[in-house]
Amino acid sequence: MNILRKMMMLLMSFLLVGMTTGAQSVFQGVGKGISYDAEVQLTASSGQSPLWLNANKYGLSSVAGDNGYIRAGLFRSTRVDSARHWRIGYGLDLAAAYNFTGSFVVQQAYADFEYKKVRLSVGSKERPAELKNPELSSGSQTLGINARPVPMMRFELPEYISLTGRSNWVGLKGHIGYGWMTDGRWQEDYVSAGAHYAKKALFHSKAGYLRIGNEEKFPLVFEGGLEMACLFGGTIYNAVGRTGVLAEPLQMGTGLGDIIDATLGTGSDATDGEYANAAGNTLGSWLLSLKYAGKDWSIRAYYDHYFEDHSQMFWEYGWRDGLIGAEVQLPKNRFVSSLVYEYLHTKHQSGPVYHDHTEAIPDQISAIDNYYNHNLYQGWQHWGQAFGNPLFTSPLYNPGHNLTFTGNRFIAHHFGLSGDPLPGLHYRLLYSYISGWGRYAVPFDDVKYTNSFLAEVSYALPRVGRVDLRGWSVKAAFALDRSTQIGNNTGFQLTISKTGFLTR
Description:
Blueprint (H helix, E strand, L loop, with lengths): L1 H19 L13 E13 L4 H4 L12 E10 L9 E13 L5 E12 L2 E7 L27 E11 L7 E11 L3 H7 L6 E3 L2 E11 L7 E13 L2 E3 L2 E2 L2 E2 L4 E2 L4 H9 L16 E13 L4 E11 L13 E8 L8 E8 L8 E2 L9 E2 L14 E2 L2 E2 L23 E13 L2 E14 L4 E18 L2 E2 L2 E2 L3 E12 L5 E13 L3
Antiparallel strand pairs: 1-2, 1-29, 2-3, 3-4, 4-5, 5-6, 6-7, 7-9, 8-11, 9-10, 10-15, 11-14, 12-13, 15-16, 16-17, 17-18, 18-23, 19-20, 21-22, 23-24, 24-25, 25-28, 26-27, 28-29
């Protein structure tokens, strides 16, 4: 933790010197172009909050049947300084919540520093998933939009940089970042006695994406990338070793060597013994996308292959698991604008047999991956919500106070569509069907089925005579679950928001 803080201070000092000694000071006009966003949301449910009233809201949501929040934020985009080489943006987004995991939420607090096409982003910021429809997709499996943002220091190429000059046939973008989890104290209070949890854990993520094609010159465009992440460092309580639960807390390394191991996917944990794997909770996804763009329509096929450690990263065990999707953008009409279908298969997990090498049997079989779970860290979650795809039922839905993903072996079909039937009126429909088998170690007694549905409509108010209501919007949503895993839940959600500019 100390090393990350020192690195952040050094980089901030470098940036401040660079920006203030340039031909133009980036601080000129930082008070201009500030927008605001104020929002009130109320949810009332029978049972728990239905899946699609809770999921993919960057963690600003709750599984409690009745919940709500008041939210306010101020933002400045770096695009305000688009005419300059040095640019600065920032945001502060706060919420007072009812029946959430906390009553006061710092949802976003960040500063973005850009020089030409390179950005340093510092703090907690909502970042969209790559190569997914943000409104209709079920979500990415590694870096999704289902959990609260993690405070971090992140170097980015946020937009594709051309590798072929003005022709722009090949582009590259990506990021590398380091941060720290904010839910350690909450984990300690939440989990039941004897359950393992982590405090002051560190977070690392990196990704690179390649684009081949130029939609303005040829209709076919390929995009592909690799996303990887790791939880490491911190203190682990009730850690699960090869001989059982450890009596004493386990202090994980946070030095430079540990940061390098997390970055490269190397090293090992103290509980690995002679069977070294990789330091911390290491995981990732391969992303592939192929798009054909017509004159006023497009169709795109995509694939998201998730892996734990190295056993599914390459082709050693075959890629039987993954998310396969299709997205269609239709010509402008009053009925349907976008369609999405996704098929998600997670049953294989490298196979049902694990065998460490021995002198008698030297063969190593690294199967039974146990997606989203870990023997030290409390799985791929933040504040009880899955970091990745919410069809991996978030631990907050568990009836007991534990943060285990109890149903990570499943097959799911997901559908989404949206449209704009009238000016200012927008709707979306989501439906997901899941068949779940539990985990390899703890299978369900019977296959559990989940049907989750959402109908949502929003209306942006217009100017009516002398009354200017622009910037105001109202959104109403109805959702239900009929599930043998998370129960039968029915809920309604009302959101009223106001956006505008504080300064121009």
